[in-house]
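Researcher: Last one for today. Full complex below.
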Amino acid sequence: MYIKNETVSNSRLTIVTGHYGAGKTNFAVNLALYLKENARDDLITIADLDIVNPYFRTADFKKLFADSGIRLAVSDFANGSLDVPALNLDMRAALSQSERLIIDVGGDPEGARVLGRFSPIIRQFDYEMIYVINCRRYLTETAGQAVALMREIEKSSGGLRVTKLFNNSHLGKETTKEVIEESIPFAEEVSRLTGLPLLEFPVKVYVKPIWEL
Amino acid sequence: MKKTLMKGNEAVAEAAIRAGCKCYFGYPITPQNEVGAYMSARIHKRGGVFLQAESEIGAINMIYGCAATGTRCMTSSSSPGISLKTEGISYIAGADLPAVIVSVQRGGPGLGTIQPSQADYYQSTRAMGHGDLRLPVFAPYSVQEMVDMTTEAFELAEEYLTPVIILADGLLGQMMEPVSFGDDNSEKPGKSFSWAADGHMGKREKNEITSLRLYSEELEESVNKRFARFEKFKENHTRAEAVNCDDADIVVAAYGSASRVVQSAMEMARSEGIKVGTFRPITVSPFPEKALREACKVAKKVLVVEMSMGQMIDDVKMALEYKLPIEFYGRQGGFVPGPEEILEKIRGMKV
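Model: Here's the assembly. Have a good evening.
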């Protein structure tokens, strides 16, 4: 039996991971805004640890975060012209300066590798690691594929374990009620195979091309 | 077929494999690395070969050799990498060989930026290498078009014996959109060609593949033949899309990513009562001159929008023979203009 309808936990540290293009950044942006509005914690930091994706990343939302009073921690190289996988984020400082820290990690095992470096610090906390799944993305179209990729991500993240699943199945602008409904058996199957609960959390679309009004 | 969500770069690779592309040779550069990454993970399972060359120059010359055997092959790169490939592309064109080349533009000159740009329009339409040379260039504006054009490019390259260019940009490469694919022909054997250097076992005359033609008569004849084929391509495959131009006071011309923004700007302008139409070249070489003249029949002014200092605008001016006032709006440095900026420009045009 799968477990469902879990809400956002009170963990100080939430890690957002998943397949490249599953919708991690959009989820992370929503989570930061939600916590700012609904949790009593004032100091919320969102950290962009993506070293694989050049575009469509958390650092794109600098203004939104500034306007909402959310601290954004990014590598000096994010969104620059340097496509070097460098990361000079001070995780200890980010944690000591905020009550809630959301880490948006790059996609796939390659993107999750950066977590390895921080895993000794992360493991000192009662962390939440959310695995974002989208059955309309190639490579995670079946529950079996999604679980296999999740295991790979856990392996490359220095022994961190996923604690919750988030079904973010969508087809961009062509998302319909049917597309979402069709994805429910998939998400339940991933939950059943992993024994992990599905997170219930409504999201708005923030990550989209500039021409979508 | 059920639609899936893919990045433009991934979709190009999948489309190529399905089209029967047997060899991909490339060298990494942002923002098109997903093409090579996808190929390296998948093409060998579907009867093909992925090889990361020692450089872009190495990769394009592998394409030259591979194409000479009549095998479907593709390479991709971004601006500085395409610059390195142009010598090889000229050789491939000079040897009348088919190949598909995907150019995912980033900001330049030089190393520039990894952010999107349309500053390689001249390069693609005028200067894909030295010599008297015109190549077909498709300019997709969606991930679906990247798929469809890649599929078509392999066919046309073989029909017209020419490299065919897919001119995308970083945004199209990186963004995700729902796509569907046609038939999977990856397992089908490729066509055989009478001209291919694919081994004759003494049973026929040898085929010679070269771009070297030392006798002027021979070189002139080969250039003329190639241009005649390009003319035929122009007649049969020049493509454009005009929207709301029938009553438009202002026609806004843009291709690729910029045309997506222009569409949104047009909708905003129309809702304010400004009669705006849009014109989108789908082939930028050959440029759809006739279609543009048709689209501008009642227009009082034309606006060209590009993510560059203005390159396609020259083709617009020539096609319209400078008969209409033509204005320009562009962003550079990796910026994609927003619909509001373009609307502001349209409002100021006063027709």
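The CA atoms of residues 65 and 92 of chain B lie 9 Å apart. The first strand of chain B starts at residue 4 and ends at 7.
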